[in-house]
Automatic annotation (TrEMBL):
The protein, known as: Endoglucanase
Residues annotated as domain Carbohydrate binding: 525-605
InterPro entries found in the cross-reference section: 6-hairpin_glycosidase_sf, 6hp_glycosidase-like_sf, CBM2/CBM3_carb-bd_dom_sf, CBM_49, Glyco_hydro_9, Glyco_hydro_9_Asp/Glu_AS, Glyco_hydro_9_His_AS
Family (UniProt): Belongs to the glycosyl hydrolase 9 (cellulase E) family.
UniProt signal peptide: 1-15
Annotated stretches, region: Disordered: 504-523
Annotated compartments: Secreted
Record-listed E.C. numbers: 3.2.1.4
Length: 617
């Protein structure tokens, strides 16, 4: 296949939000969800070890893994989908994650999940799919470190099948095997071996997992059945192995299993068809369909139906709030926002790589429009919405403070180790009308209703509960938006870089002028600039500069006006007004001792930045 690639021009305005900061925070959330023995490099320090006897009563070690949301249950189906989507994010945008210093953290987050899945799959046809149960867990409000609830383990086997659970776990293992192929080949092969076995188990012994693990029905019931997971797993196994068996499986079963028939309006932990259709469309664009081209073209048509519905150009479009957010359901709607936006992001890059466009019933749509749609959804999530609320905890100034999350809402066991009993947590902590004692940094909560309304209340679980599968697709989108290099080759063979690559310094690289203005009684504002990355494109060397403005006074800084000259590229994090720059639109003032950061890219030495005017109040 001829090399296909895309180049986005640098002035494309990914302005307004610090996507790199949001990316870092979104990955951090997974550390708050860890179960088991926490590692030495654990960054969410208010958490401690938990669930250390998981699986013991069943004679199997099930210590580890993730709690799915605000409770302390380990649900296998959403955990596997979380790992699949984190892996897909790394597969598509690993270089961008590395450029933002987050590839290692993202890979650690994937491995925390896959290490658990290896334990949960002790035999080819046995998979443990849940530890604990929602009924007993939800009766209590306890820190994970204090759990007194039933920690029974539930499994699927040939007599009690679960093709959807085994299929999704196979997809997770296969996708993760690609992630570790270069940095840890032995581990990658082990993951692929488990993926092969799990797919065989899922396909050979068919049945819905919630018919076997009935305690999951109320919480993660498999409404869509298992055909979508079988196709999803086959697609990931083909991408991981290049084994024609899985390509043929997609071709032979696409019609009968609904891959070519279902026109979708959602994508998430239960319904995978839109994801399958997107992956198969990629295979078609790569020229891999072979004899299955007619079937793959039908997958492709359904993928485009989904994309057209997102941008409002389809025959039946996805509902949106007045503020422009995708709206699927009141309970944790944000999961559908992030997953659909991820598909739009990768599909945009697939189209541009193949020099194609999206063909909708209301006309053709350029790939850039699809990417702009995904950006609009992320921007809404980060605060560009009618409430000016960030739905990512810890990002921006106005974010949820009373998150429906046991660990976040109860004082850390490290601060007060006194045992919190089952019902005591409800009486003393759940009903508190105060901010959480522990900030659940990076968590994406359920979000607003159909009319952009949101109530920041702990008992409003439909809107204030976070979930791992809300965050997982965001890793890829945020890495994509945060990246300044603009070079993507999404249809070429996947090559995830090793974490923390050494970035070569450009030969002519002018040293950044670190010329801070020192605070004094007459000038209480400091400005410090540094070059954070550089790259070459078409013979030109581009530099990304970070500039930090700090209020060194003892008063609040208002009406800041900056003068910036010798700027020859795009700038993010400030609002331009005439010939000067002011606070970004989500910030009206800068408290004493606080800083704001803005970044810009151009192919020259640092721009000249100075303070034109300001007020202190």
């Amino acid at each position: 296949m001829a090399p296909l690639f895309l180049l986005f021009s640098l002035p494309f305005a990914f302005a307004g939000h610090d996507y790199g900061q949001a990316l870092s925070k979104s990955i951090l959330f997974f550390e708050a969800q860890r179960s088991g023995y926490l590692p030495r490099n654990q960054r969410i320090t208010w958490r401690a070890n938990s669930g250390l006897n998981d699986g013991k009563a069943s004679g199997v070690d099930l210590v580890g893994g993730y709690y799915d949301a605000g409770d302390n249950v380990k649900f296998g189906l959403p955990m596997a989908f979380t790992v699949t989507m984190m892996s897909w994010s790394i597969i598509e945008y690993g270089k961008q994650l590395a450029a933002n210093g987050e590839l290692r953290h993202a890979m650690e987050a994937v491995k925390w999940g896959t290490d658990y899945f290896i334990k949960a799959h002790p035999q080819p046809y046995v998979l443990y799919g849940e530890v604990g149960d929602g009924n007993s867990d939800h009766y209590c409000w306890q820190r994970p470190e204090d759990m007194t609830t039933d920690r029974r383990a539930y499994k699927i086997d040939p007599s009690n099948p679960g093709s959807d659970l085994a299929g999704e776990t196979a997809a997770a293992m296969a996708a993760a095997s690609i992630v570790f192929r270069r940095s840890n080949p032995a581990y990658s092969r082990e993951l692929l071996r488990h993926a092969y076995q799990l797919f065989d188990f899922a396909d050979k012994y068919r049945g819905k997992y919630d018919g076997s693990i009935t305690v999951a029905q109320k919480y993660y019931g498999s409404v869509s059945g298992y055909n979508d997971e079988l196709l999803w797993a086959a697609a990931w196994l083909y991408q991981a192995s290049n084994n024609e068996f899985y390509l043929n499986y997609l071709g032979k079963n696409g019609d009968s299993m609904g891959g070519t028939g279902w026109a979708m309006s959602e994508f998430g932990w239960d319904v995978k068809y839109a994801g399958v259709q997107t992956l198969v469309a990629k295979f078609l664009m790569q020229g891999k369909a072979g004899q299955h081209a007619p079937v793959f073209e039908r997958y492709h048509q359904k993928a485009e139906y989904f994309m057209c519905s997102l941008v409002g150009k389809g025959s039946r479009n996805i509902q949106k709030t007045p503020g422009g957010l995708i709206f699927r359901q009141r309970w944790n709607n944000m999961q559908f926002v992030t997953s659909a936006s991820f598909l739009a992001t990768v599909y945009s890059d697939y189209l541009t790589s193949s020099r194609g466009s999206l063909k909708c019933s209301a006309g053709n749509v350029a790939p850039s429009q699809l990417l702009s749609f995904a950006k609009s959804q992320v921007d809404y999530l980060l605060g560009d919405n009618p409430r000016a609320t960030s739905y990512m905890v810890g990002y921006g100034n106005n974010y949820p403070r009373q998150v429906h999350h046991r660990g976040s809402s109860i004082v850390s066991v490290k601060v007060n180790p006194k045992f919190v009993a089952c019902r005591q947590g409800y009486a003393n902590w759940y009903t508190r009308k105060a901010s959480d004692p522990n900030v659940l940094t990076g968590a994406v909560v359920g979000g607003p209703d159909a009319y952009d309304n949101f109530a920041d209340e702990r008992d409003n679980y439909e809107q204030t509960e976070p979930a791992t599968y809300n965050n997982a697709p965001l890793l890829g989108i945020l890495a994509r938006l945060a990246s300044g290099d603009g070079r993507y080759k999404q249809l070429l063979p996947v090559a995830v870089p090793a974490p923390n690559p050494v970035i070569a310094k450009p030969k002519p690289a002018p040293k950044p002028k670190l010329t801070p203005t020192h605070a004094s009684s007459s000038n209480p504002i400091t400005i410090e600039q540094k070059m954070t990355s550089s790259w070459n494109d078409r013979g030109n060397t581009y530099y990304r500069y970070s500039t930090v403005v700090t209020n060194k006074s003892y008063k609040t800084l208002k009406d800041l006006k900056l003068s910036i000259s010798k700027l020859y590229g795009p700038i993010w994090g400030l609002t331009k007004s005439g010939n000067s720059y002011g606070f970004p639109k989500w910030l009206s003032s800068l408290p004493a001792g606080k800083s704001l950061e803005f970044v810009y890219i151009h192919s020259a030495s640092p721009a000249d930045v100075s303070v034109s005017s300001y007020n202190l109040a």
